[in-house]
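Appendix B. Chain record.
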Amino acid sequence: QVHLVESGGGLVQPGGSLRLSCAASGFSLDDYAIGWFRQAPGKEREGVSCISPSSDDITYYADSVKGRFTIYRDSDKSTLYLQMNSLKPEDTGLYFCALTATLVSYGCYVKDYWGQGTQVTVSS
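Structure tokens predicted for this chain:
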């Protein structure tokens, strides 16, 4: 049974860094496209970044995070990561990981298995 658990969020000052983790169980992390999404009150859900199955070696980043965030997986630990640098107040939100559509060239599209989320707050 697929299970995803997010962790690593917190309160940081602008310019700071966080690394989010998504621990996966019940499937092989290499065989699925998977990504990070975020929500804030009153705003639409945003696909932040997603990564293709390992055999395809494709990543997608929203324009708002390009050059600041990096998505990667550690298959041995069955964990997906999002390294977040140079954080801005507009990065604040509840971050989820989820399986996505296999084709990631145009963006991240949720397929199934949302995690519980981890809160990121960027404020002085």
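Further analysis of this model is presented in Appendix C.
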